Amino acid sequence: MPTPLIAGNWKMNGSRALVEAFGRAFHDADLPEGVAVALMVPFPYLEAAERAFDGSCLTLGAQTLSDQPAGAFTGEVSGEMLRECGARMVLVGHSERRTLFGEDDAAVLARVRAALAVELTPVLCVGETLEERDAARTEAVVLGQLEAVFDALQPAERARLVVAYEPVWAIGTGRTATPEQAQVVHAAIRERLVRYDAELAAAMQVLYGGSMKAANAAELLAQPDIDGGLIGGASLKVDDFLAICQSAG
């Protein structure tokens, strides 16, 4: 059974004050045994978060990275820079990076490799749009995005990833997949991972990233193939995020 992981993605939100509030709250948080917690904060707050989260249960993560280690790439941030600022995880292929910034499967794979090269844990995001779901293409799209990365990696590299299923139609829209709908896709992901290695499939953390919040977390997390959550808006509220983490026990 994979270790439950609750990961918050602040996107382009937050402040130093919020970083410090989370640091204080999670220093003293009473969480279920074995639950792992991470926060993906914006680049400018990484060093402040490293200080604020020190000694707490929070693992620090970033929201994306360059596929290049260094060079004349104005505005980009390398994996080594993220490591130096305290990050240990990084989102790769988030739906907003795919749709707003044009990252295709090849770009996602390059970023996964860049993360692995500097010992960052990539959280590979996969998911379908409303149009793709309505066209009954959910599994084809989701598993295609998964295979575009996993097919290109060595077995030891695959074992270092986390997968997050985020139905794009349920992010920030007020719509949420039912626990049963989410479970169907998570089970399909797990089944496809078995083709690579049964032990890999059993150990892989597969998170649900479709508007999980305090009110629905327990029911979603009770599904057999949902190992945690990638939390958006609710991760900006200390009490809500704590409640989700407590639901993961």
Automatic annotation (TrEMBL):
One of its GO terms (cellular component) is cytosol. Pathway: Carbohydrate metabolism; erythritol degradation; Carbohydrate biosynthesis; gluconeogenesis; Carbohydrate degradation; glycolysis; D-glyceraldehyde 3-phosphate from glycerone phosphate: step 1/1. It is found in: Cytoplasm. Its main location: cytoplasm. One of its GO terms (molecular function) is triose-phosphate isomerase activity. SUPFAM superfamilies: Triosephosphate isomerase (TIM) (SSF51351). Keywords: Cytoplasm, Gluconeogenesis, Glycolysis, Isomerase. Substrate binds at residues 9-11, 172, 211, 232-233. GO terms for biological process: gluconeogenesis; glyceraldehyde-3-phosphate biosynthetic process; glycerol catabolic process; glycolytic process. The keyword Transmembrane does not apply. The keyword Lipoprotein does not apply. Its EC number is 5.3.1.1. The active site is at residues 94, 166. It catalyses: D-glyceraldehyde 3-phosphate = dihydroxyacetone phosphate. It is an enzyme of class 5 (isomerase). Involved in the gluconeogenesis. Catalyzes stereospecifically the conversion of dihydroxyacetone phosphate (DHAP) to D-glyceraldehyde-3-phosphate (G3P). Belongs to the triosephosphate isomerase family. PANTHER family: TRIOSEPHOSPHATE ISOMERASE (PTHR21139:SF42). Homodimer. This is Triosephosphate isomerase. It comes from Halomonas organivorans.
